[in-house]
Amino acid sequence: MRKRLIVSAASAITLFLTVPASAADFQPGAAGVGDTYYPTYGNGGYHVSHYDIRLKYQPATDELEGTTTILATATQDLSRFNLDFALNVQEVRVNGRVAKFATSGEQELEVTPARPLAKGSQATVVVRYKGVPSTVKKYGFTAWQRTPDGAVAAGEPESAWWWFPSNDHPSDKATYDISVQVPDGNEVISNGLLVGKRSEAGWTRFSWRENKPQATYLATLAVGKFDVTTDTTPSGLPVYNAYSKDLGENADSARASVERTGELVDWLSGYFGEYPFSSVGGYVPNVKAGFALETQTRVFYGPRQFARGANTSVVVHELAHQWYGDSVSLSRWSDIWLNEGFARYAQFLWSEHENEGTAQELADYVYASHPADDKFWTVKPGDPGAENQFDTAVYDRGAVAIQALRNAVGDDAFLRILKGWPAERRYGNATIPDFQAYAEKISGKPLGDLFTTWLFTPSKPATGPVAAVDA
Ligand code: ARG
Ligand code: ZN
């Protein structure tokens, strides 16, 4: 009698432990990671470790179809979760089982797995989809740009939605396999190393692999007719560059700039330390967009960057981002200064190297050329607002802030900070307060006032970036 009672108590406990979850304990993941600038970007409840993106693209019609397989880990008990995506979805499977899905908001894809996901468990999510990405507008635009002979995916912060479903926020980095089938005669350009190229029945499949963590906005894809150059730097790094065959009068200036990628990476390594990735290069598609973007290992350059002759400065800027932005990434978009301030400062250093003005001279010029009532000074580089994320103040005042830091801590500590930070945070994420704490640790100086003055005050600092008396 007594014995039987004990047994039933034990089974009751077992039952309780193996079914912790009344369905009510499993909650939907949030529709955003909580970014103050972009509340719906990224998603809550899971992290992604790998994307396998397998596509087929027809340039003549802009038809894209494919399958993306996502390896994720649940960070809470999940009844459902969101992905960010813009194209039409045919099927979603989670751990092999067909999942329900629905769309909401602008770019939310809500996935309800057949079986809920326990916190800490791994999930394999397979999404089959197709669409004509250039015709799909979200918030009034598409980041998928058609060219006369193909297309390009590049944009910041938005670029992924038009070609792969993702947890679209730089706080969740993952490795990538990107494999795309295109009609014979086209090239496919993407991140990392080209690990496969195979033709069959009129179609060629290119397989690219980025084996280091990469933010979603740094994944890129281009299809079209390109001239490709390959090389290896003196330090052994593979270089892969590509130029649209249709660049017209910008073709030579583009090559005279981008072909110097290997040399410029080696030069930047002197300031920033060892290059963090296993491949490097850039591509210049025949797009109308004039911007450039630091897409990981394979920089996107709008051809207008080269409209007035060679532009090594933009190459330096985008390569500097490989350390500041790509290897060490933002945890939140409001910290964009960590990317753009340092990339612009690298251009100051390059100018100095080329005898075209020292970093101090350029910083003094920025300070002097904007009068106190200039709107320029109302943008706080350390928190510019989503609308001003890429305002010139983030770049120019942001670089002056770095010169002010240099003057405050002295050259020796400054150069140790510039090189030490990308090593300290390699392949990770960080915030401006993290950087300030690191700079204070290395320099042994309190820097709160300096950061407040240069990054967080919406008016012109009383004095320019002059050397401190004790520096
Ligand atoms: N991070 C880019 C740069 O190199 C800025 C891209 C701005 N995005 C855009 N769509 N205009 O400075
Ligand atoms: Zn930049």
3D architecture notes:
- Belongs to the peptidase M1 family.
- Its EC number is 3.4.11.2.
- Residues 309-454 form the Peptidase M1 membrane alanine aminopeptidase domain.
- With 471 residues, the protein is of the alpha+beta class.
- 27% of the residues lie in helices and 29% in strands.
- It contains ten helices and 22 strands.
- The chain has an eleven-stranded mixed beta sheet, with no helix packed on it.
- α4 (312-323) crosses α5, α5 (337-353) crosses α6 and α6 packs across α7 (392-409).
- Arginine binds at residues 155-156, 291-294, 317-318, 340, 390.
Helices and strands, with pairings:
Elements: H1 2-18, E1 27-28, E2 46-58, E3 63-74, E4 78-84, E5 88-94, E6 97-104, E7 108-112, E8 122-131, E9 144-147, E10 150-153, E11 174-183, E12 187-189, E13 193-200, E14 203-214, E15 221-224, E16 226-232, E17 238-244, H2 251-258, H3 261-272, E18 282-284, E19 292-293, E20 299-301, H4 312-323, E21 329-330, H5 337-353, H6 359-369, H7 392-409, H8 411-424, E22 429-430, H9 432-443, H10 448-455
Parallel strand pairs: 1-4, 2-11, 17-18, 18-20, 21-22
Antiparallel strand pairs: 2-3, 3-8, 4-7, 5-6, 5-8, 6-7, 9-10, 10-15, 11-14, 12-15, 13-14, 16-17, 19-20
Bound molecules: arginine (ARG) and zinc ion.
Signal peptide: 1-23
Protein name: Aminopeptidase N
Organism: Streptomyces kaniharaensis
